[in-house]
């Protein structure tokens, strides 16, 4: 496991936190909070959430952002999220409630 480092290239992508196998497992809280505000999601909060799919799944836990989106941010870009060990995209969220 490697300690992640902020990397800025010509596209200004941010990958922060610990990494395992090249995948970011955490995003710095200040960046996460800014992304949460732009996307209107309760990132970092404990929530009950329903995920769309062939059958609706309801999950409860802390909503984690796995990787920051490319910059400049586009609210229509889907985010890769994790909740209760389940990885999904922001576009699959049917509804959520902060608990």
Structure report:
The protein has 99 residues and is mainly β. It is 11% helix and 35% strand. The chain has one helix spanning 29-39, and strands at 2-3, 18-20, 23-24, 46-51, 57-62, 64-65, 80-83, 86-89, 93-98. The strands form three sheets. The chain has a three-stranded antiparallel sheet, with no helix packed on it. A three-stranded antiparallel sheet has the order 5-4-9, with no helix packed on it. It has a three-stranded antiparallel sheet with strand order 6-7-8, with no helix packed on it. The termini are far apart. Mean pLDDT is 77; it is low at 1-25.
Which keywords apply here?
99 residues, mainly beta, three-stranded antiparallel β-sheet, 11% helix
Morphology call: globular
Number of domains: 1
* Average pLDDT reading: 77
Instruction: Let me know the number of strands.
Output: 9
Oligomer: single chain
Spatial gap, N to C terminus: 32 Å
List the helices and strands in order: EEEHEEEEEE
Largest beta-sheet details:
3 strands, antiparallel
Query: In which range does the helix fraction lie?
Result: 10-25%
| Beta fraction | 35-45%
Count of runs of 4 or more consecutive helical residues: 1
Strand line-up of the largest beta sheet: 1-2-3
- Unreliable sequence segments: 1-25
What structural class is derived from the secondary structure elements?
A: mainly beta
Summary?
This protein has 99 residues and is mainly beta.
SSE inventory with pairings:
Elements: E1 2-3, E2 18-20, E3 23-24, H1 29-39, E4 46-51, E5 57-62, E6 64-65, E7 80-83, E8 86-89, E9 93-98
Antiparallel strand pairs: 1-2, 2-3, 4-5, 4-9, 6-7, 7-8
């Amino acid at each position: 496991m490697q300690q992640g480092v902020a990397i800025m290239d010509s596209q200004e992508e941010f990958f922060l936190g610990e990494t395992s196998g090249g995948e970011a497992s955490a995003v710095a809280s200040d960046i996460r909070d800014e992304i949460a505000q732009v996307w209107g999601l309760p990132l970092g909060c404990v929530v009950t959430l329903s995920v769309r799919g062939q059958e609706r799944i309801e999950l409860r836990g802390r909503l984690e952002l796995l990787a920051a989106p490319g910059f400049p941010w586009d609210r229509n870009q889907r985010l890769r999220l994790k909740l209760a060990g389940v990885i999904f995209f922001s576009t699959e969220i049917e509804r959520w409630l902060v608990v």
